[in-house]
């Protein structure tokens, strides 16, 4: 079955001809491109690679430059949230690691829920993590010596703080 038979017989599509020129049908072609020196092919013109969405709109022989910017504030907020959450996470001491016998007696969902409780709170009060957090807070609040005219002597004075306290 050729393309026009498929369009007519399966999809019930017919050409509308406003003149004497015949309408040609053809199958689409894969998007072919080179990304970071690697020849690549995709079935669609919109695709995602390593979390970046690309849309190919035209054929070109010229090099195309793609640039992206990371949202460093969002990354920082996620890390800070994770650290704070883990330092304060409740520890469930009644949930030790499961034995093989206990695993056999449970279904997958029960095992998953048990292990989630068993792993929670493992970093609660962790001295190394707490120490890193304390050191970071001190670096932000400490005065920096030798900054020009002396009007600004800490990061807190320009709005970079470690909590809800603001400096003016």
Architecture overview:
InterPro entries: FliD, FliD_C. One of its GO terms (cellular component) is bacterial-type flagellum filament cap. Residues 28-165 form the Flagellar hook-associated protein 2 C-terminal domain. The chain has 168 residues and is of the alpha+beta class. The chain has two domains: 3-55, no CATH class; 72-158, no CATH class. The protein is built from five helices and four strands. The strands form two sheets. The chain has a two-stranded antiparallel sheet with strand order 1-2. A two-stranded antiparallel sheet has the order 3-4. The longest helix is centred in the middle third of the chain and has 17 residues, at 72-88. It is flat, with a radius of gyration of 30 Å. 0% of the residues are buried. Residues 164-168 have low confidence and may be disordered.
Short recap of the structure:
Pfam families: FliD_C. With 168 residues, the protein is an alpha+beta fold. It contains five helices and four strands.
Topology of helices and strands:
Elements: H1 3-10, E1 31-35, E2 38-42, E3 46-49, E4 52-55, H2 72-88, H3 100-104, H4 108-119, H5 127-141
Antiparallel strand pairs: 1-2, 3-4
Tally of helical runs: 5
Which ranges are low-confidence, i.e. pLDDT below 50, for 5 or more consecutive residues? Answer: 164-168
| Helical percentage | 25-40%
Radius of gyration, in Å, reads 30 Å
Question: Average pLDDT across residues?
Answer: 78
Q: Estimate what percentage of residues fall within beta strands.
A: 5-15%
Class by alpha and beta content? alpha+beta
What is the approximate shape? Answer: flat
Give the N-to-C terminal Cα separation.
77 Å
Order of helices and strands: HEEEEHHHH
The side-by-side strand order for the widest beta sheet comes to 1-2
Quaternary state of this entry equals single chain
Number of strands: 4
**What is the domain tally?**
2
Tell me about the largest β-sheet.
2 strands, antiparallel
Pfam families: FliD_C (PF07195)
GO biological process, one term: cell adhesion
Protein name: Flagellar hook-associated protein 2 C-terminal domain-containing protein
């Amino acid at each position: 079955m050729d393309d026009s038979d498929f369009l007519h017989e399966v999809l019930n599509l017919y050409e509308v001809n406003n003149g004497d020129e015949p309408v040609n049908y053809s199958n689409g072609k894969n998007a072919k491109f080179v990304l970071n020196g690697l020849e690549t092919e995709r079935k669609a013109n919109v695709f995602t690679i390593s979390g970046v969405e690309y849309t190919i709109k035209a054929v070109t022989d010229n090099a195309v430059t793609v640039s992206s910017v990371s949202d460093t504030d969002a990354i920082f907020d996620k890390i800070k949230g994770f650290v704070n959450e883990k330092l304060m996470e409740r520890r469930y001491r009644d949930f030790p690691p499961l034995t093989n016998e206990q695993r056999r007696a449970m279904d997958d969902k029960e095992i998953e829920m048990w292990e989630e409780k068993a792993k929670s709170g493992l970093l609660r009060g962790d001295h190394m993590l707490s120490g890193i957090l304390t050191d970071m807070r001190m670096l932000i609040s400490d005065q920096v010596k030798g900054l020009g005219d002396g009007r600004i002597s800490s990061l807190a004075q320009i709005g970079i703080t470690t909590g809800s306290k603001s400096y003016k």
